[in-house]
Amino acid sequence: MITIIEELDRSGARLATGLAALTDAEVRGPSALPGWSRGHVISHLSRSIDAYRWMLAVAHTGTEPGPRPGSAELAHATEAGAGRPAAELAAELREQLARLTADAAALPADRWEVLVSALAGWRHPAWYTLNRCWRELETHHVDLDLGYRPADWPAAYVAWALDDTATALAARAFPLARIEATDLDRSWNIAAVGPTATGPGHTLLGWLSGRATPDAAALGVDGAPLPAPPAWPLPAVTWS
User: Fold this and answer.
1) pLDDT digit string (tens) for 83-95?
2) Which of 71, 81, 91, 112 stands 20 to 30 A from 43 (CA)?
3) pTM for this one?
């Protein structure tokens, strides 16, 4: 787990750098997510990390550490926190990330395979919690509209997220035959029919995650119509 913890540290450090210069006015400005300010995005990230820490605590002890906030409670907490000063929002997010990585470092090796439940009900091993957090940090960093773009995503993140997304798409018979990431020298078979999407990994992931809208030529699809990607991220399908 050391590698993914290090990736979380690096992702958090990049995000912290982006947040450091935000003014209170800018944090109340619109993000790239409809209806959400930048403050909403930052507040949401802190609440999400709360949820990830809750799952790691369940994996560690085998018991719930306390009542689990539901989706309505999390939405309310996100809304309530969105209007706070920029420095306060950034400081809370840094503290939450530090607590998460400390919790992860303290988790015994034999507890990483314990299945925990996402709020939506699907289950995954405790180690996947860190991958979910990594994905959320990288995705919402783009959503903050601070100049961080899919092209800035690290190659390790893009490769993992495409692996995860391709597996989920294949399980749902998404009408795309193949994905080919030219810069990563990687490809994924998705379905028996449909076009092949070819291009840099970050372009492919930006399209599949709804964070970019490249045209067919940019994805190298030779004029074939692109299917509309489903809501992202998709639940993992590897575990029951």
Assistant:
1) 999 999 999 999 9
2) 112
3) 0.95
